[in-house]
From TrEMBL:
Residues 63-498 form the Sulfatase N-terminal domain. This is Sulfatase. InterPro entries: Alkaline_phosphatase_core_sf (IPR017850), Sulfatase (IPR050738), Sulfatase_CS (IPR024607), Sulfatase_N (IPR000917). Belongs to the sulfatase family.
Length: 638
């Protein structure tokens, strides 16, 4: 009886197994295949027909694409746009391509990069400030996490048959993710790049960088933050020691290109080349800065006059253009002491060498493409600065002290004395915070007023754009159409014949907000198609519409920071409610010299209403300024 029950159970199980197998086999033969599958799936191989999807290919004859984004370069710095710093590579590309004089960034690095990579407004893709823990906040426009619904140019091009590489500064990976444990979906390799070589944060030492390749730290770093890390703990790879970061990323970019072309000669590539230059620390070999010995002894006021004249000769600005009044926080050069003049001129010599060296490294990319017969089949989009020139060097310049100690500790005489005692290390690996005084930043922004972070002003947001494409741009020239950094993605797609996708990896995509500039390639007089654009950085804000612009500067409360970084007191005159709005007609006053707010209050109200509308659409609210960000940092720390 016992054996009978056991055998019965076994027989039942075998029957069930056989039945399951038959049902499974039948269902395999009869199941409905993927609707995209073009073959036939039968019960047997004889009854089936194989199908292999065609590999993804770029459009026939699609060019290579190179995006170059420099850091902290003002409109009037490079010789390509009238500046006094020699940049022969940029001059050559501009002379043989198109110079865009009315192109804009967001006024600070991370939002510019987020808008560039996605073709959407920075707050709309969650990067209203930074992706750093200390400078982000838990709101839709501020959490620093680009959503999957805002696919990057790299994701789009890779899905359309391109290889994709990024080298240099990335700047939009959240701090929490920037460790050996990931997650890696917001690293460059998680956002469409086949390979990445560079650094994830906002700045890094040029001779001892926080270096990452793909998803691996190369120097023992496991976390990055906005203020850097303890350099003494940086175990930099021995064979890279002493090399400048710009050299390293250029070498790697050339390696990526050569490997790809050797494996697939006809496959196009996309290179995103974003050096740390010319963000602080300003570090460069002496051979480059020595070229500029004595060339800035006349000071920043003379520099502005000379650059304005050059820009008129190049046809970049109106022939009757005048400089705005020097910003009040910058002293007249002639009011400085001989010691100050000598020190500050040295700061600018270092910066100039740094920028010219950056141009040289870009030239290596250009020359290599020429040597492998790829230059004529490559389109370059070169944005000379992710914002206006930097104010972060303070009035006196910085050498090896953090910015916070300069802003909140010591006196002018202390700062000057300390900088004079360390002038010999300017530009060297020891100048780990090297940055020029903001008088030079103002000069580098000629012909505009104000500086980086000043989102209300052209000096914070207007940067040169060069487009170079021998195959597609036959007549070089100057273009004055309004453009914004979110325009580069749709411009690239239209130029190479690719439509923005509705989905990426099954995720529905948000609309592209930028406007293609391709319409202006062949028509210098075509009216601007990008007609509305908001700006907001740390309280400073503006709205552009059809040639008119309204903006409000925002000066956060004065603060004292005590030893433990806590907020000691907060008092001051500036609030969002009493910020003063200005109004300009950029059609007749391109560099914002004549404020029309009192003369035309109705126009101002119209633009303020438009700002509010754009702020709501793009998740700009709540307003957050840099004091709010500091409070947020202290709160998170404690």
């Amino acid at each position: 009886m016992k054996n009978f029950k056991y055998n019965s159970i076994i027989n039942s199980q075998n029957s069930l197994l056989i039945t399951t197998l038959l049902v499974t086999q039948f269902s395999i033969g009869q199941s409905k295949p993927d609707p995209n599958y073009k073959g036939v799936v039968g019960k047997t191989l004889a009854e089936s027909k194989e199908y292999w999807p065609e590999p993804v290919k770029a459009p026939e004859g699609a060019p290579n694409v190179v995006w170059i984004l420099l850091d902290d370069v003002g409109f009037g710095a490079t010789s390509a746009f009238g500046g006094l710093i020699n940049t022969p590579t940029f001059e050559k590309l501009a002379n043989d391509g198109l110079r865009y004089t009315n192109f804009h960034t967001t006024a600070i690095c991370a939002p510019t990069r987020a808008a560039l990579l996605t073709g959407r407004n920075a707050h709309a893709v969650h990067v209203g400030g930074f992706s750093h823990t200390a400078m982000s906040a838990g709101f839709p426009g501020w959490d620093g996490r680009i959503p999957s619904s805002a696919g990057t140019i790299a994701e789009i091009l890779r899905d359309n048959g391109y290889n994709t590489f990024a080298v240099g500064k990335y700047g939009v990976t959240p701090d929490e993710d920037a460790t050996d444990a990931g997650p890696f979906d917001r690293w460059p390799t998680g956002k469409g790049f086949d390979h990445f070589y560079g650094f994830l944060g906002s700045e890094t030492d040029q001779y001892n960088p926080d270096l990452v390749e793909d998803q691996t730290w190369l120097n023992g770093n496991t976390r990055l933050n906005n203020s850097g890390k303890d350099k003494s703990k940086n175990e930099f790879t021995a064979d890279l020691k002493g090399k400048h970061l710009s050299e390293l990323i250029t070498d790697k970019a050339i390696t990526y290109i050569d490997r790809q072309k050797n494996a697939a000669p006809n496959k196009p590539f996309f290179l995103y080349y974003a050096p740390g230059a010319t963000h602080s620390p300003h570090q460069v070999a002496k051979e480059w800065s020595d070229k500029y010995k004595g060339k800035f002894d006349e000071g920043w006021d003379v520099y502005r006059d000379k650059v304005l004249a050059n820009q008129k000769k190049l046809g970049l600005i109106p022939s009757d253009a005048k400089l705005p009044t020097r910003d009040s926080y910058v002293k007249a050069w002639n009011a400085l002491t001989p010691e100050e003049k000598k020190l500050y001129a040295k700061f600018m010599e270092i910066y100039a060498g740094y920028l010219e060296y950056t141009d040289y490294e870009v030239g290596r990319i250009v020359n290599h493409l020429k040597s492998i017969n790829q230059l004529d089949n490559t389109i370059f989009y070169i944005v000379l600065g992710d914002n206006g020139a930097s104010k972060e060097g303070t009035a006196f310049g910085t050498i090896d002290q953090p910015l916070t100690s300069k802003l909140f500790g010591g006196t002018k005489s202390d700062d000057l004395k300390q900088n004079l005692s360390k002038v010999d290390i300017l530009g060297t690996p020891d100048a780990i915070e090297g940055n020029y005084p903001y008088g030079w930043a103002l000069a580098s922004n000629t012909p505009f007023k104000n500086l980086k972070q000043d989102a209300h002003s052209e000096g914070g947001t207007r940067n040169p754009l060069i487009v170079y494409y021998p195959k597609g741009i036959k007549t070089p020239g100057i273009r004055n159409q309004y453009g914004h950094v979110n325009d580069i993605l749709p411009t690239t797609l239209e130029t190479i014949g690719i439509k923005a996708p509705e989905t990426i990896k099954g995720i529905a995509q948000d609309p592209i907000q930028g406007t293609s500039l391709a319409y202006s390639y062949a028509d210098a007089k075509a009216p601007s198609r990008h007609t509305v654009q908001y700006y907001y950085i740390f309280g400073s804000r503006a709205i552009y519409k059809d040639g008119w612009k309204a903006g409000a500067a925002h000066h956060p409360d004065f603060i004292d920071v005590i030893d433990n970084g806590a907020l000691a007191k907060s008092t001051g005159p500036s609030t969002y409610e009493n910020d003063v709005w200005e109004l300009y007609n950029l059609n007749t006053d391109f560099n914002e010299r004549v404020d029309l707010a009192k003369k035309n209050p109705e126009k101002l109200k119209e633009l303020q209403a438009e700002f509010d509308n754009q702020a709501k659409i793009n998740n700009v609210y709540p307003f957050i300024d840099w004091i709010d960000a500091l409070k947020q940092r202290i709160h998170k720390k404690n």
